[in-house]
Design a protein that fits this description.
Blueprint: E1 10-13, E2 19-21, H1 22-40, E3 45-49, E4 53-69, H2 71-76, E5 82-88, E6 96-103, E7 109-113, E8 117-120, E9 123-124, E10 137-142, H3 155-158, E11 161-165, H4 170-179, E12 184-192, H5 197-205, E13 209-211, E14 228-234, H6 237-247
Helix pairs in contact: 4-5
The protein binds magnesium ion.
Length: 252
């Protein structure tokens, strides 16, 4: 249905505040069916999903679901969109125990278990750091919410960047930051933290670092639907530190 008129039909607005298109709705229905099956086999949890909001499945752990991250790409038929899940013991980044992202167009799959490592297509992810000569960053993925100029705020970084991308799925972007393909993820304007919960665990478990744009840690940031944060993330601590230096940010 990606790239079709039916797929991009607007069917309502989601709990996350964005328009819901038919593709979002179908993706969420599929995820909810699987979670209902998990419930029947004894798993107890509380679901927070982008379109439907919260639903009680009889237990405390939170299951966070963005059934379709990169909806606009899916709508246009560009093969860069994903289903994103996170399981957490609480509502902060530090509480996330499991992260899962699958590129629905290619099947490429990433997951991580807190303290247990990151995986790509089931194999342990042991990426080489992206190349860095100390003076320029090879590839920066820059993001901003619709209507915000992504270059605003990221100017000092982009001035020292060889190539810039704006690919359209925050979750996949972090997974590719975890592989080192994206040397730096720069998100200068606040975006929804919810979508980042699982992918950030994947980046961390791969050995990467992430802070907000001012260099502050993200551990205590809420992962609920109403929470927003800026982001600066890289597999390479050297590239991350270089970016903060360019921004004149102070790591506390
Ligand atoms: Mg979505």
């Amino acid at each position: 249905m990606a790239g079709t008129t039916k797929g991009r039909q607007v069917v309502g607005s989601g709990a996350g505040g964005d328009q819901t298109i038919y593709l979002d709705q179908v993706a969420e229905e599929i995820v909810v069916q699987h979670l209902e099956r998990a419930y029947r086999s004894g798993f107890r949890f509380r679901l927070i999903s982008e379109e439907l909001g919260e639903r009680d499945f009889g237990g405390d752990p939170l299951v966070l679901v963005d059934p379709l991250d990169g909806s606009f790409n899916a709508k246009m038929g560009l093969p860069y969109y994903a289903v994103v899940l996170a399981a957490t013991q609480g509502d902060r980044f530090q509480d996330v125990r499991l992260g899962y992202v699958q590129n629905l167009a290619t099947g490429d799959e990433f997951h991580a278990v807190a303290g247990g490592g990151a995986f790509r297509d089931g194999q342990p992810l042991r990426p080489d750091p992206p190349p860095f000569d100390g003076t320029s960053i090879p590839l920066v993925q820059v993001d901003a919410p619709s209507g915000v100029d992504a270059r605003e705020g990221a100017g000092p970084i982009l001035a020292r960047t060889e190539k810039t991308r704006q690919l359209g799925s925050a979750a996949l972007n972090l997974c590719h930051a975890a592989t080192g393909g994206i040397a730096l993820q720069a998100t200068p304007a606040p975006v929804r933290a919810f979508d980042l919960a699982g992918p950030l665990l994947i980046l961390r478990e791969a050995g990467g670092v992430a802070t907000d744009f001012a260099g502050r840690p993200l551990e205590s940031v809420s992962v609920r639907l109403d929470s927003r944060t800026t982001l600066l993330a890289s597999l390479s601590p050297a590239i991350h530190a270089f970016a903060l230096e360019l921004l004149g940010a102070r790591v506390s």
